[in-house]
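Why do we bother with a discrete structure alphabet at all? Because it lets us treat a fold like text: something you can write down, compare, and reason about line by line. To make this less abstract, here is a complete entry for Interferon-related developmental regulator 2-like isoform X2. Read it the way you would read a sentence in a foreign language you are learning: slowly, and without expecting to understand everything at once.
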Amino acid sequence: MPRNKKGKRGGNSSSKGKNGVRGESGVSDDDLASDVLSHYSSASESASVVEEGTGEVVDEQTAQEETEDKLKQCIDNLMDKSAKTRLAALESLRLAFSSRVLYEFLLERRFTISDCLERSLRKGGGEEQAAAATVCALLCVQLGGGVEGEEGFKILRPILSSILIDSCATLSARQSCARALGMCCYVSASEDAEDLLKSLGHLESVFVGAYPLGDGSLPTVKAGTPALHSAALQSWALLCTLCPASRINTVLNHHLPRLHACLESSEVNFRIAVGETIALLYELGRDIDQEFEYEDCDALCDSLKSLATDGNKHRAKNDRRKQRSIFREVLHYIENEDFTEEKIQFGIETIYIDGWMRRRIYDAFKEVLESGVRHHLQFNPLLRDIFGLGPPLILDASVKASRISRTERHLFNSAAFKARTKLRNKVRDKRADVM
């Protein structure tokens, strides 16, 4: 996770500047965000950590209390008159929500935070709207799929949907709202299908802008729009995993032919999103009927083969490599139902990504949580329930004691790196014995 400049530790972030505006002086906005992240990094270590050079023991409970105080200040700053202060507060909350599980802390403050986020979404500029939408998604992940999460989603869904379909809103804000709407609906949608259907409809209304025109040609879109189409399509695909069989049949009949046409798009990331969505829809179709087959499957496979072997030099080398890899997987799945299993390790546990639906779900959480996804897989009951991991593991003292210190780990990694470098240099040497 990227860090901002290291701020002053222990500074008074609530001090007022000469104009009397909180957050404009004392400790800067960047310092406050950095402090929140650094406190969470220290709290994520074992119960007590010895600071280098001092020998002083830092108690985890003290670090937790200090961090919560800073988070309370960030929540207060969401109501500040200064847009810069509100943006800094949103960034601090994003870092904290993605790096730790804060259910108890947020439970009694959820309505205050939801109201502040709604205000930022309604009245803020494009950058603030995008940041607020991301924090909305993280808040739902923190609160989980219970009553509290549903309450937050009921408050935030209308404004997220409104910005998403507003052509006058900035593309970054609409893209962030697309991801937030998909994640919040996936986590918080109740047994009542109304919220799910409304969210699906709003997301669909955005990415159909990339569908072929009446003459079969693809529309010309302005720069940045394909990223919005990709975000809306991926969130829509995530929500399709919740749909009943009757809805899936309708989706397959209507969308597969049009998505097939979108494989001709000039934007590589949108093509990849389309290819992954086609594979996911195929998997959903086969779950309903093992004999499911797209009526124009031969033409689809020809398109996939072309993309899986694309060597056009006008495309960036990394783009070509990524595209070929993804479309080989899609092609193998459609032709032979083969899927390359992926193993995700965190702590002493492992999950296996063994299908396109499971991959879309994992990728959606990874997009929101970023580098904090492994921590949430270890400790967040919501993610553990979704991936079938059971309650969080409690390591006994002997396991905790067996962990090596940070310094020892650094020395070990340095030695291993030097050994790898020597070996690689030997192999690369033209004089090396090829025998």
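What the structure line is telling us, in plain words: DSSP finds 19 helices and four strands in the chain. The radius of gyration is 24 Å.
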